[in-house]
Amino acid sequence: MEKEQTKVANNTITRDLIELSQPTGNIYESVMIMAKRANQIAAEVKQELSAKLEEFSNFADTLEETFENREQIEISRHYEKLPKPTLVAIKEFQNGEIYYRTVDNKEK
């Protein structure tokens, strides 16, 4: 996930709950959709970060032999500066970029 692709504010924003509930008609459904999407985004970012940091791992070193790696620190800082997955999910939901479906449990 690139920071340039996701134009999300990193500060606190007051959200209109009525506006957030309009696509589904229920605020709780909207929150659950955004929460599930935030979990997906967090898993993607974690997998991407782990793949990048894996090349720096050396299992033969002991704690005393571990040293600072500048590239590893820069990668970690880059991921710390990314917007939180919940903020990205809210922005995607507001823009209509999230596909979701509801299951009707009505028996006929």
Q: What is the percent of helical residues? A: 40-55%
Number of strands: 0
* Domain tally: 1
Number of helices: 4
Please tell me what the overall shape is. elongated
Please state the CA-atom Rg, rounded to the nearest Å. Answer: 19 Å
User: Which regions contain 5 or more consecutive residues with pLDDT less than 50?
Assistant: none
Strand content: under 5%
Largest sheet: none
**Kindly, what is the distance between the CA atoms of the first and last residues, rounded to a whole number of angstroms?**
44 Å
- What class would the helix/strand composition place it in? mainly alpha
Mean residue pLDDT: 82
Order of helices and strands: HHHH
Give me some keywords for this one.
mainly alpha, 4 helices, 108 residues, single chain
Describe the protein:
The protein has 108 residues and is mainly alpha-helical. It has one domain. It has helices at 17-21, 27-54, 70-81, 85-94. The termini are far apart.
Walk me through the topology.
Blueprint: H1 17-21, H2 27-54, H3 70-81, H4 85-94
Helix pairs in contact: 2-3, 2-4
What's the short version?
The protein has four helices and no strands.
